[in-house]
Amino acid sequence: MKPTAYALLGPTASGKSRLALELAARLPLEIVSVDSAQVYRGLDIGTAKPSAAERRRVRHHLIDLLDPTESYSAGRFRADAIAAVEDILARGRIPLLAGGTMLYYRALAAGLDALPQADPQLRAEIERDAAQRGWPALHAELAAVDAKSAARIMPGDAQRIQRALEVWRLTGKPLSEQQSGRAPALSFTLRSFAVVPQDRAVLHRRIAERFDAMLEAGLVDEVKALRKRYALNADLPSMRAVGYRQVWEHLEGACDLAELREKGIAATRQLAKRQITWLRSFSELERVAAEDVEGLARAIGG
Hints:
Oligomer: single chain
CATH superfamily of the largest domain: P-loop containing nucleotide triphosphate hydrolases
Helix content: 40-55%
Strand content: 5-15%
Structural class: alpha/beta
Mean pLDDT: 92
C-alpha cells in the first residue's frame, strides 16, 4: 500500500496557512509550499511567507529556492514537490502540501504533458499586444483557435491566456489537444482538502485587511530593497506576482499610494476568484472549514 500525502488548498486570505500551522501543532507534519511566489528569496511580506519563528517551529519546504531574477515552472515544482514528499515520508513524518497556486497542484496531481518551453520573446510580444488591445481581446483570439482552452480560461486571466496563445503560436496546435490528462505515477497517494469560503463579502474584507497589513509592514520598502539588490524588471515572474506588480507601478510613478492600495486589493480579489474557479474544477477535493482544525486533524492523523 502506498503511503499518503495530504494537500490543503484555498484562495488567498482564506485561512489555509493558519490552519496548516495549527495542524502541525497537533500532528508530526512538515509543510510543502504550493506557492509560485514564495519560492523567491526576499519576497516575504507580499507573499505572506511564514515567519522565521514559524519555520523554526514547523519545517517548510520549497520556500526561498531562487533569486527573484530567476524563473520557476510547474514542471520543476512537480519534481521538487515529489522529492520533498518522499523525503518527509522516509523520515516517518506527514507531508502536507499547502498553498494556492492551483496550476502547481494540478501539475502534481494530474501530471504534465510535453509542452514547449516558454519563449521570452514571444511572451513579450503577446504582452505588448495585450497592452494595446486588452486581455479580453486576446481571449477572443484564443477562442478562435482553441475554443476548449478559451472556455476554461477567464477573459481576464492573463497568465493562462498568454500560455495558451504561446503554445498555439509555437506549435500550430491548440493547447487543449496537447493536454492528455494522464494520471501521474506518484509513489504516494494524495488526499486533498480545500478551504472554499462561502461568504464572498467576508473573503473580500479579509483580503483588504491583509493587503493593508502588508503595506503597514513595509511592502513598498521591501520592493525598493529588492530593486537595489537585484537586476529586476517588470516582466520577471517574481515582479508580476499580485502586490509586487502594483508596487512596481507605484515606484515607476504610474500610481500614488492610494491607487496602489486600490489596485492591489482589486488584483488580489481577482486572484481569489480564479483560485476558487480552479478549486471547483478539482472533483477529488474534500471541503473543510478553516476553523475545523480538530476535524481535519482526525482525517489526517487517523
